Amino acid sequence: MRYLILGSSLRGLHDVARSALNDGHLVTMYDAENPGAPPDLVGRVEVVGPEWSDDLLDGIDRVVTTPWNAETLPPISVAIDRNVDVVTEAGFGLERLSLPYVAITGTNGKTTVTEVTTAMLVASGIDAMAAGNIGAPVSSLSNTDADMLVLELSSYQLRFMGRFDPSAVALLNVAPDHLDWHGSLDAYTAAKARIVGGCGPGAVVAFNADDDVVLSIVDSSDSVLVPCSGCRLPEGGNGVQDGMLVVEGVRYETPVTSETYRFNLVVAGTLALALGASIDGVAAVMRSFSPGKHRRELIATVGGVAYVNDSKATNPHAAMAAVAEFDSVILLVGGRNKDLDLSPLIGLPTTKELVAFGEAGPQVAAAAPHGVQMVAHMEDAFTYAVSIAEPGDTVLLSPGCASFDEFTSYEARGDAFRALVERLEEVAA
Length: 429
Known about the structure:
- This protein is of the alpha/beta class and 429 residues long.
- The chain folds into three domains: 2-83, Rossmann fold (3-Layer(aba) Sandwich); 96-288, UDP-N-acetylmuramoyl-L-alanine:D-glutamate ligase; 297-428, Protein-Tyrosine Phosphatase, Chain A.
- The chain is built from 14 helices and 20 strands.
- Strands 7-8-6-9-10-11 form a six-stranded parallel beta sheet, sandwiched between helices. The protein has a six-stranded mixed beta sheet with strand order 15-16-20-17-18-19, with helices on both faces.
- Helix 4 packs across helix 10.
- The radius of gyration is 23 Å and the shape is globular.
- The mean pLDDT is 94.
């Protein structure tokens, strides 16, 4: 076979190239920005670029891609039109994986559930490793010593997954996101649905019992379906009852009151127990859980005003969930829109004032021209919020957009917000 690998500078693709070569295949690597190969592949692979030509697909049997290549753009779109097999780096890696794995996806919450599930397994004495959209590339793990993998999979990865045989999966929620990559909400939803479609009859599917789109996806599945909720105890499933988390009939204590994080913990516990975790291991993680950085992270309270960093909220669905956790919110929204409808962020019940910034600022302002303060940059939004905040308010950075207009990542955006709050603390002191 002849492989075309889209990218030459990412570590996971180097592992793909080595595996394909070891299997006796011919390999071409295309890179639009940095054509080149790692030293051990020089002379073994053909590297082309930076200009793309459809002729590069002539004679190609399989394309291996990364999430950076949108399905709506060449070379992916051309490969699809030519019926060339397309697989993601993660999908290629799973084909060569011999150990069991669990897969997790959703518009929001998948990183948290992946991390917590891994922690529960480790606390139970199981050598589990998080990978996929976080951690190591799947294609690099064929010889890992781990007992089990816990994979976070994005819609990008699922769209071209190839063979898929998980022991358990979680479908957390489906709301509009990444439409600039997929081209439509239907295409995005179909990509997410592949995590359920790939499951066999014996696989456990932990799903959101309170999400209508998720319910429609799992309706035709013949796997072991386990409904999960963060606000109630669904019939035949796991959830919340009398302030306790209930998973497989066992009640667990947790310090978190957020419906979102309770749901995440319930799903993680469902997956971990299905994979052999102990009740004690699950309970220990439940008791000690706290949200990670950039996820509704309270940075400080200054002058009676709470400053919360939720920079990881890169779509309206995540931002709306964050706003619902607080009583009086000055909401900072903006960045680079991903072809999403931002109007749901307008007029949320607990929002005292909405401050829009960045490339998406004019779009937010256009949706509510009389109810939005528009500024140029995130720092300007912060400064304005400080000027109007009163004791009891929460200044919440929950942008609902990607960060790439002003920052290199949502982490960089969150770190900038933290620095602004710490500077404000110093002035107040």
